[in-house]
Amino acid sequence: MKKYTKETKIHPCRLEKSDILNIEELIRSDVETKRTEDFSVNSHLHNVDIYENSMNDFLNHKDLPKILSRLSISIIGWSKDNNIDKSIDLTFYDNFITLRVSGDSETWVNGKYLQLKNFLRTKRPILWFLKTTPVYMLRGALFVILFSGLGFMITRFILGGLDSVGILPPVMLFTISIFDTALSKFQYIKIYIEEKKSFIEKYNSALLIMGAIGAVFTVIGVIIDMF
Prior knowledge:
Structural class: alpha+beta
Helix content: 40-55%
Distance between the termini: 71 Å
Number of strands: 9
């Protein structure tokens, strides 16, 4: 029998405990399971692996941290003639999220795929685009600027002393380095098992935006000073 499959990589997400329960409900709907192990949820942490066949058991596990970045949810469904006719795999892991839906019915596969994908779309953070190819290229450019700027300041210092370096170049490099560090701290996936966010976690997007604005104005200031 022919099988249909749709799979994709998902943008960054910020999820809460209630979102995980909603995802379980979406995954279980229209899927007929026969055994307890047909549904599984697990997380490979640094010091322990947590595996359960119930989302509630998983979320109530004593070793579960307050914030997760690794979570896998899988389910298989059975037809009336005892054949596996449906499967869903959703994986959250540090720097990627993947969704895979397979089944005998093309209509069901397309529908379930869009249902889960659209739900996760509503959970992407404001600055989700920071984990896209253009931003990775920008960070590469920032590294070149930092390296070149450092070489420029060293050369100026050797040739003309500290006064020849000026104030703007060090300020520019410091601002860019802070901005790049903030970009590197932006995590692809965060699942809040307990709603206790720190100040940085609550205002991470605002801090990144302020850093970006500061970096832009600093670079503009340096360009104006050069001319």
